[in-house]
Each structure stands twice: as C-alpha cells, then as structure tokens.
Write a structure and sequence with these properties.
mainly alpha; single chain
Length: 176
C-alpha cells in the first residue's frame, strides 16, 4: 500500500530540519502544557469547594499523562533523527496519527453540529478548525516521509556495505 510522500515541509523546508523543528515544537508544547496544568491547579485551588475534587484530579492526571507521553515520544523522535535510528521515531509517528484521528473526529462532529439549526455559530469555528486539521495532516505526512526515507536510506546503506563486503570475499576466494 502506497502512502503520500513529500520531499519538503510547507514547500520550502527539507525533511530532516522539518522533523527536528516538529520534534522541538512538540517538546516545547509539552513543557507549556505541564506548566499550564500546574497553573490551573493553583488557580482553581480557591474554587475547589464548588467543583468536584475527583473530577478535577482525573482531568489533571490525564493532562499530565498525555503531556508526559508526548514529551517522551517527541524526545524519542529527536533522538531517532540525530542517531539515524528510525525505529525510535515510531512512537511519535503512531501517537501523532492517533491524535490526528481524534482531531478529525472532533472536526467532523463540529461540522455535523454546525449543519444543524442550533450550531449556526460553530461555522465561525469549524472552518479554522478544518484548516488546522489539514495542516496537522501535512505535518504527519512530513513525519511519515522522513521515517520512510530514513528506513530506505538505512536499507540502502546496509545493502551496499554487504554487497561490497561480499565482492571482497569473492575476490579473495578467486585469487586463492
């Protein structure tokens, strides 16, 4: 099965620098998410009597879990690029695909609700959300293309090396 393949991100940045940029932005976003979750704990501390503490604790636990998971996969992504080990890049590729599916589902639901008479105001939000989902899809294709190119280059390098080594063995056998 063939999938889309691109050679540049946003038509001007080659794949490797784009992959490094996406990984760095992922790490920065995770640090921001963790900081904002900590800020929400301090801000909502005064309102805890009104809200259910268990619900708030579960929401914060989920925020921390996903932020730490994204931080781990983004770090593995960057480490895989710098060490030229594409297998370390797989968790980020899978997690970003699952996130993309979730965003697509939410945007689809927004369009369904915006089509009803009650959701007329959602048209204002739905179009930018659709554009952002398209941009996220492009970034996922960039990640996939970088992964595939690194796997392909790794195979070519190993094959050439083994072929060269095999030719040396054949030459040695024929000369003896």
């Amino acid at each position: 099965m063939r999938c889309l393949n691109v050679t540049h991100c946003l038509c001007c940045i080659s794949l490797k620098p784009a992959g490094i940029l996406l990984g760095a932005l992922g790490i920065a976003g995770c640090i921001y998410s963790i900081a904002m979750a900590k800020y929400e704990i301090n801000k909502d501390f005064e309102v805890t009597e009104i809200l259910n503490n268990e619900v708030m604790e579960h929401q914060l636990a989920l925020k921390y879990f996903f932020a730490v998971l994204q931080l781990l996969t983004s770090t593995l992504w960057l480490f895989g690029i710098f060490t030229k080990n594409p297998h370390l890049m797989l968790p980020e590729l899978i997690l970003s695909f699952l996130f993309l599916l979730l965003i697509g589902l939410l945007v689809g639901l927004m369009f369904l609700v915006a089509g009803s008479s009650r959701g007329a105001r959602l048209h204002i939000i739905a179009f930018p959300a659709y554009c952002i989902a398209g941009l996220l899809f492009h970034f996922w294709i960039v990640r996939l293309s970088l992964y595939k190119s690194m796997v392909h280059n790794g195979r070519n390098t190993d094959t050439r090396y083994m072929g060269h080594e095999l030719n040396e063995i054949r030459t040695y056998v024929y000369t003896v």
